[in-house]
Automatic annotation (TrEMBL):
Full protein name: EFMT2 methyltransferase
Chain's gene name: Eef1akmt2
Source organism, top-level taxon: Eukaryota
Catalyzed reaction equations: L-lysyl-[protein] + 3 S-adenosyl-L-methionine = N(6),N(6),N(6)-trimethyl-L-lysyl-[protein] + 3 S-adenosyl-L-homocysteine + 3 H(+)
Record has Cell membrane as a keyword: no
Gene3D superfamilies: Vaccinia Virus protein VP39
Keywords: Cytoplasm, Methyltransferase, Nucleus, S-adenosyl-L-methionine, Transferase
PANTHER family (alphabetical): EEF1A LYSINE METHYLTRANSFERASE 2, PROTEIN-LYSINE N-METHYLTRANSFERASE METTL10
Recorded GO MF terms: protein-lysine N-methyltransferase activity
Amino acid sequence: FSPSVLGTREHWDAAYERELQTFQDIGDTGEIWFGEESMVRIIRWLEKHKVPLDSSVLDIGTGNGVLLVELAKSGYMNLTGIDYSPSAIQLSEKVREKEGMSNIKLKVEDFLAPSAELSGFDICIDKGTFDAISLDPSDAVGKRKLYVASLCRVLKPEGLFLITSCNWTKEELLNEFREGFEILDELPTPKFCFGGRIGNSVTALVFQRK
């Protein structure tokens, strides 16, 4: 990928500072990455596969925290969101407060250098964070490897990893996560047709840690 400001912390700090101000002004929670249907897809999959409601869930790059709120509304009780942008965590705290979801844990954490207490999760969810890391102007390849290593550290053996991406195809993600993970499922996502070929604009996969 070409390096992009979308891969920098400065960009996300500025973006979430704007969203935080907007929320304080008019109560708008801001953008939902990949739209609401992406959250519905994840929750439906968890429900269909009877994933226990007391499973510990980590939302990697939680942003405004709306996914965690929706998981809480669906009955999930052990929810943690992290983001390396303090403004994102401030925003998600305000969204949590507005929705009355006091049981959601939120922390400023850089997933590429996770603290020791960030471990033992049953489920990790990523909606766009791996995409952003892949665009980092400084050593994106190294940071992708760090991401996989961090995922192995924080996710229990046989734990589930649900990733939604608009930058990577299924085959590319299988290659990126080949060390320590195996694919369990592919979630249905919108398809498009271009030049006689059909493709997916978004890829959503479920991996299991070996």
